[in-house]
Write a structure and sequence with these properties.
Elements (H helix, E strand, L loop, with lengths): L1 E4 L5 E4 L12 H10 L5 H11 L9 H6 L2 E3 L1 E7 L5 E7 L2 E3 L14 E4 L5 E3 H7 L19 H4 L4
Antiparallel strand pairs: 1-2, 3-7, 4-5, 5-6, 7-8
Helix pairs in contact: 1-2
GO cellular component, one term: nucleus
Pfam family, one: zf-RING_2
Organism: Tilletiaria anomala (strain ATCC 24038 / CBS 436.72 / UBC 951)
Length: 157
């Protein structure tokens, strides 16, 4: 902004002219024109992909998240080793669990765990947070909308 003096000693404020886009080209137009030239296009294609985003929705819907079963982590057995450490065996609906592979923290008795269709188990809070950005299991990359096969579910109580 510029200030100019008028005859009465008062300053008037005049806005600076806005810079117009040259020839009306956007960053996307410039990037696309680079793709038309010969040469290595990997970086330009990666930038274009990042700009446009994924072609399909990558996050799970609220309904899909709500349909995933949630169960309590149960203590199966507990023992003290010779060196004084406590060893626990934990399970969720009969499936043995140790650590959540999302946060890398050990499960604790009475925590709530989310069971994916592939039978991988995570803390409920970790799974909910993750599924707001992706819709696949972080362990095996299976889509959570794919139903479990009856063969997989035979051993589950």
């Amino acid at each position: 902004m510029h200030t100019e003096e008028d005859g009465g000693g008062q300053g008037t404020i005049r806005a600076s002219p806005r810079r117009e886009a040259s020839l009306g080209f956007t960053d996307l137009d410039v990037l696309a024109s680079r793709l038309e030239q010969d040469g290595d296009h990997y970086e330009a294609l990666a930038a274009l992909g990042e700009f446009l985003g994924p072609a399909v929705e990558t996050r799970a819907t609220a309904e899909e998240i709500a349909e995933l079963p949630v169960a309590k982590v149960e203590l199966v057995s507990r023992r003290r080793t010779k060196d004084g450490k406590i060893k626990q065996k934990l399970s969720v609906t009969g499936l043995r669990v140790d650590r959540c592979t999302i946060c890398q923290m050990q499960f604790r008795p009475d925590q709530m765990a989310c069971i994916f269709p592939c039978l991988h188990i995570f803390h409920d809070s970790c799974a909910s947070r993750l599924l707001k950005t992706v819709r696949t299991c972080p362990h095996c990359r299976r889509d959570i909308a794919e139903p479990s096969s009856p063969r997989i579910l035979e051993g589950v109580v």
